[in-house]
Design brief:
It is a single chain. This protein is mainly beta. It is built from 2 helices and 10 strands; from the N terminus they run E-H-E-E-E-E-E-E-H-E-E-E.
């Protein structure tokens, strides 16, 4: 809703009485103060209309290490990376030694083949399964605790 506002748009408060209480300005200047214009001498017309002359949006970013930082939207740039985000407690598998079996196939396990995996439903049988313990996003490194002889069932 507020993202649709453009410079030059005319706006008004939904609750002018509440806005008058909230926007008192500062003690040293009247900047930011809402001086409500009464409707009674204007035969019911609402003259409390404002023109958008500038706008600024702020973004709060929660980083993987748990720190939250706030920036103006002009300071950041969207990045549409192809790699997924990883976080502690995520389960990961090691691609080396990964086997697959087509659902209902009696021939058994075969080496993992990404193309055939997405063509029909398959079950994956990883040789190594781990849980991410910590992530260093800047260095792009994750510490993983690997389990011996895993048996994984996803529900």
């Amino acid at each position: 809703m507020y993202q649709d506002l453009k410079l030059g748009d005319c706006v008004r408060f939904r609750d002018p009485s509440g806005a008058a209480v909230k926007y008192q300005g500062s003690e040293t200047t009247l900047s930011g103060r809402f001086n409500r214009i009464s409707e009674s001498p204007r035969r019911g017309w609402d003259f409390n209309v404002f023109k958008v002359v500038a706008k600024q949006q702020q973004v709060s970013i929660l980083w993987q290490d748990g720190i939250t930082l706030t920036h103006t939207s002009s300071e950041i740039q969207r990045f549409g990376g192809f790699e997924p985000d990883f976080a502690p407690t995520d389960i990961v598998v090691h691609r080396a030694g990964l086997k697959q079996m087509r659902d209902g196939d009696v021939q058994g396990l075969k080496d993992f083949n990404e193309m055939t995996f997405f063509e029909t439903p398959h079950s994956l049988h990883p040789a190594k399964v781990g849980v991410i313990q910590s992530v260093d996003a800047r260095e792009r490194i994750a510490k993983v605790r690997w389990f011996q002889a895993p048996s994984v069932s996803l529900l």
